[in-house]
Protein: Shikimate kinase
Amino acid sequence: MLNGGNVVLIGPMGTGKSTVGKALAEKLGWTFVDTDAVIEEKAGTTIGAIFAEQGEPAFRKMESETIASVLQGETRIVSTGGGAVLAEQNRKAMKTSGFVIALRATEETIIMRVGNDENRPLLQGNAAERVRRILEERKHAYDFADFTIDTTDKPVEVIVDLIVSRL
Ligand code: S3P
Structure:
């Protein structure tokens, strides 16, 4: 049950965190925040450029700072980057400030949705192979969520209704 906390969406790339987050925020009349978008706005450049020019550790630092700051104050729907759950401090911030929902999808769906995206630096090169490896490496990384929804064959409205019914 939700006690006035944030709703935090976690899950691998391409599982629909931003799309679902936006639709959920609209339905509830809440503010929506996408941490990757906040990072890009603050840095004045793309996630791809941050990885290329400053490296992944610099991105992870910005990501942790962003998560800490957006989970304070006003209650929001927050969608996070797929790797945000790797840092314990981020998991803690998510757990203590809200209801955590994990989205999942099949490997094929993820590859179809984001395999060609040039702004997903971790998928450059052989995207299918990279998705496979990331899913394997992060197999249990999203297990701490309060509940999990498979978005593979579900329209956004159905996913939103499922979430609302659990809040
Ligand atoms: C990442 C996922 C991306 C973005 C960055 C790293 C990851 O977010 O934060 O490219 O480590 O899985 P999405 O999950 O929104 O694609």
